[in-house]
Write a structure and sequence with these properties.
It holds the Pfam family ATPase_gene1. InterPro entries: Atp1_alphaprobac, ATPase_put. Belongs to the bacterial AtpI family. One of its GO terms (cellular component) is proton-transporting ATP synthase complex. Keywords: Hydrogen ion transport, Ion transport, Membrane, Transmembrane, Transmembrane helix, Transport. There is one protein chain. By secondary structure, the chain is mainly alpha-helical. The chain has one domain. It has three helices and no strands. Helix 2 runs antiparallel to helix 3. The protein starts with 14 loop residues before the first helix and ends in a 5-residue tail after the last helix.
């Protein structure tokens, strides 16, 4: 009744219109991929791998630096580094599990 013809098309399901909507969504997605506005799904695994690697290296290097500083300041030569490396490994695995357990986009 919105267009004045006496028919209400808002509740009706037309397969032609739903097919057109699907084709339009697909065409918009392909155009966004072509123009570079949206990254393809193949990059998702590469990005996930980079995040995992960065979490692993960052946690280990950071904990080794903190352990080395503790060893220098308090004079407990190997123990500060050993304990902080084990804590760094635990933090790295926790981050990796959190990254890998996330829902895919």
């Amino acid at each position: 009744m919105a267009d004045g013809s006496g028919q209400d098309f808002r509740g009706a399901e037309d397969p032609r219109l739903s097919s057109l909507d699907e084709r339009l969504k697909e065409a918009r997605h392909h155009e966004a991929l072509r123009s570079g506005h949206v990254k393809p799904a193949e990059d998702a695994g590469y990005s996930l791998g980079n995040r995992v690697l960065a979490a692993l290296i960052g946690s280990l290097v950071g904990s080794a630096l903190i352990g080395w500083c503790i060893d220098r300041w308090f004079g407990v030569s190997p123990w500060g580094l050993i304990v902080s490396l084990f804590l760094g490994i635990a933090v790295a695995f926790r981050q990796i599990l959190r990254i890998a357990g996330g829902r895919p986009g």
